[in-house]
């Protein structure tokens, strides 16, 4: 009993706000509101940028996780600490930091602009960058954990069959840790989808270009509460649906 | 395709130092208790464990510094380590594919090997859908599909239940007989070693304590471990003519020896008596029963006394003697049953 009461209170605390969303939703005007182009634009942009950010995180994060899990080099603990910094950093601070580096006058941004004519801030690419920055630690930590838990003797077996390092990694290690990579990717995608602070700071709030769902919700809240509720419910439904589908396909399997 | 290796691996609390040779087509069993360093020796031969000293030569080629993927050594691991995301066929095709065969060629080779181990019908199954014996055969096919000059097997039958083990052992024997390269088999089971190997190398504490064929090793064990394995009472003492003095006990023996010698006899040669026997046995001494266990149809009695002793008695004899721990009895062995040989 002593644990049950706070446990139930905790559950209620987590579920009640979601119930509030459902109860207060303007169900009668819902279909019309959902069909508005602005809503669909924001949703499409969110799904697209979160997916691209996840792809960036996979390409860069899996090798980084491998390095942390398998390679032995001085300062590995420092590197791991650095990787987890975005986890504890307030996203707005992350956005400011990104501006200082990739902004038009930033450390790298200035050079990117003059050499290649590439500008990242206040663009869709900037949204992807901001989301990837915030979400990558989730992927790296999940994949590193999976790699540490994987039985390295399978890699030895592959070596005795003539497989070099790269082949062993792609043909044996990756399939072995696929559930971990999938779980990390899902976490990463969910985090990217909900990203707000870094995005609005680094990429701004331009409808159709950088205005993702969380930004649209925030903006709508100031003018039309009902619209904000609709957008929130939609975001909730999309993320829950996709997470549930992926979970069945990958994580538990 | 002969193996010539001297393996030295030094660790904090353990040193492995063994010299191993195997001729083409020969099956050598590395037999020893757990922790003797058998698996370390196998890993060193496969290139998975760096050597602190010594060398590995295969068909005259020096492999000492060659990484595992370039050695041409096939390994059947104790728990097989089949790739769970690949079918049986793709597991076997993995090696040939890595050695430059095209996908189609590799799958053709793999199909032929699966056929040879009797698993053609299971080619598309994932490892977890195969029985233990089938997994073992896939692992064997996978190791042989790269046509290794040296085949290493780490306790290949240990993970199987007793029934499957019998069949699998017979099949394994057939495949090893056909293998033209050298084979090194690691086991702690003397039966596996005796049935599968042409020659036994016995390792204890990282060192070779005895080598020879099955007949030699079982007739003349040189350590307590081997004596226990083959079921003999073994003592070390000083030989003088047809006697061997073991501490205070002088054993009359069947062979002429002098100097440091072994005396050995099976537990079935021992008879137990309530008082000093007056029969023909030349060796008799008082002993105390330490324990009684079932042993096949008989009872195996452990005895303390001037020497530790195992005796096999029939249940009838045990009932007659009313054997129980702590009881004093006389043990007797005929001199003709005690083999003696030089240390």
From TrEMBL, chain A:
Pfam families: BPD_transp_1 (PF00528). Part of the binding-protein-dependent transport system for molybdenum; probably responsible for the translocation of the substrate across the membrane. Keywords: Cell membrane, Membrane, Molybdenum, Sulfate transport, Transmembrane, Transmembrane helix, Transport. InterPro entries: MetI-like (IPR000515), MetI-like_sf (IPR035906), ModB_ABC (IPR011867), NifC_ABC_porter (IPR006469), Sulph_transpt2 (IPR005667). It comes from the Bacteria. One of its GO terms (molecular function) is molybdate ion transmembrane transporter activity. NCBIfam families: Mo_ABC_porter (TIGR01581), modB_ABC (TIGR02141). Residues 43-244 form the ABC transmembrane type-1 domain. GO terms for cellular component: plasma membrane. Belongs to the binding-protein-dependent transport system permease family. CysTW subfamily. The chain crosses the membrane at residues 48-69, 81-102, 122-143, 172-192, 225-246. This is Molybdenum transport system permease. CDD domains: TM_PBP2. It comes from Actinorhabdospora filicis. It is found in: Cell membrane; Membrane. The complex is composed of two ATP-binding proteins (CysA), two transmembrane proteins (CysT and CysW) and a solute-binding protein (CysP). Its main location: membrane.
Automatic annotation (TrEMBL), chain B:
GO terms for molecular function: ATP binding; ATP hydrolysis activity. It comes from the Bacteria. GO terms for biological process: molybdate ion transport. Gene3D superfamilies: 2.40.50.100, P-loop containing nucleotide triphosphate hydrolases. InterPro entries: AAA+_ATPase (IPR003593), ABC_SmlMolc_Importer (IPR050093), ABC_transporter-like_ATP-bd (IPR003439), ABC_transporter-like_CS (IPR017871), Mo/tungstate-bd_C_term_dom (IPR008995), Mop_domain (IPR004606), P-loop_NTPase (IPR027417), Transp-assoc_OB_typ1 (IPR005116). The keyword Cell inner membrane does not apply. Residues 3-230 form the ABC transporter domain. It holds the Pfam family TOBE. Keywords: ATP-binding, Molybdenum, Nucleotide-binding, Transport. Residues 278-342 form the Mop domain. PANTHER family: SPERMIDINE/PUTRESCINE IMPORT ATP-BINDING PROTEIN POTA, SPERMIDINE_PUTRESCINE IMPORT ATP-BINDING PROTEIN POTA. This is ABC transporter ATP-binding protein. It comes from Actinorhabdospora filicis.
């Amino acid at each position: 009993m002593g644990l049950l009461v706070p446990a139930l209170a905790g559950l209620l605390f987590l579920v009640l706000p979601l119930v509030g969303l459902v109860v207060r939703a303007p169900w009668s005007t819902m279909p019309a509101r959902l069909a508005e182009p602005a809503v669909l634009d924001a949703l499409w942009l969110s799904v697209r940028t979160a997916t691209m950010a996840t792809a960036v995180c996979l390409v860069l994060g899996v090798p980084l996780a491998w390095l942390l899990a398998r390679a032995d080099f001085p300062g590995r603990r420092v590197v791991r600490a650095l990787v987890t910094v975005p986890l504890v950093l307030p996203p707005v601070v992350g956005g400011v930091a990104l501006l200082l580096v990739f902004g038009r006058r930033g450390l790298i941004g200035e050079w990117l602009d003059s050499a290649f004519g590439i500008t990242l801030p206040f663009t869709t690419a900037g949204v992807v960058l901001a989301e990837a920055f915030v979400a990558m630690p989730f992927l790296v930590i999940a994949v590193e954990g999976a790699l540490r838990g994987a039985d390295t003797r399978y890699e030895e077996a592959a070596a005795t069959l003539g497989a070099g390092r790269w082949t062993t990694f792609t043909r044996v290690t990756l399939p072995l840790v696929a559930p971990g990579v999938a779980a990390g990717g899902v976490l990463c995608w969910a985090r990217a989808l909900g990203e707000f602070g870094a995005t609005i700071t680094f990429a701004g709030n331009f409808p159709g270009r950088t205005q993702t769902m969380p930004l649209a919700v925030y903006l709508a809240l100031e003018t039309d509460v009902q619209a904000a509720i609709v957008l929130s419910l939609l975001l909730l439904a999309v993320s829950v649906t996709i997470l549930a589908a992926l979970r069945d396909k990958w994580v538990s399997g | 395709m002969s193996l010539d290796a001297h393996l030295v691996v030094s660790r904090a609390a353990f040193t492995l130092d063994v010299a191993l040779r195997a001729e083409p087509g020969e099956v050598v069993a590395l037999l020893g208790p757990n922790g003797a360093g058998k698996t370390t020796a196998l890993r060193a031969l496969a290139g998975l464990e760096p050597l602190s000293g010594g060398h590995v030569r295969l068909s005259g080629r020096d492999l000492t510094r060659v990484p595992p993927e370039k050695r041409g050594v096939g390994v059947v691991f104790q728990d097989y380590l089949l790739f769970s995301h690949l079918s049986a066929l793709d597991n076997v095709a993995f090696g040939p594919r890595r050695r430059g065969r095209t996908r189609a060629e590799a799958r053709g080779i793999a199909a032929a090997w699966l056929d040879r181990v009797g698993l053609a019908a299971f080619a598309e199954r994932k490892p977890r859908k195969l029985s233990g014996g089938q997994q073992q055969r896939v692992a064997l096919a996978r190791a042989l599909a790269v046509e290794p000059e040296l085949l290493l097997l780490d306790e290949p039958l240990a993970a199987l239940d007793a029934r499957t083990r019998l069949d699998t052992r017979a099949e394994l024997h057939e495949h090893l007989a056909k293998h033209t390269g050298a084979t090194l088999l690691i086991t702690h089971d003397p039966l596996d070693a005796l049935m599968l190997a042409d020659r036994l190398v016995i390792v204890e504490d990282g060192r070779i304590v005895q080598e020879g064929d099955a007949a030699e090793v079982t007739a003349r064990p040189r350590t307590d471990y081997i004596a226990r394995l083959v079921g003999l009472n073994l003592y070390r003492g000083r030989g003088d003519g047809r006697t061997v003095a073991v501490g205070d006990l002088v054993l009359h023996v069947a062979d002429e020896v002098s100097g440091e010698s072994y005396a050995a006899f099976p537990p079935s040669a021992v008879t137990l008596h309530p008082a000093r026997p007056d029969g023909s046995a030349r060796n008799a001494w008082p002993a105390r029963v330490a324990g009684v266990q079932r042993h096949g149809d008989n009872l195996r009695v452990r005895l303390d006394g001037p020497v530790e002793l195992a005796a096999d008695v029939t249940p009838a004899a045990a009932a007659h003697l009313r054997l129980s721990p702590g009881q004093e009895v006389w043990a007797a062995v005929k001199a003709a049953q005690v083999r003696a040989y030089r240390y």
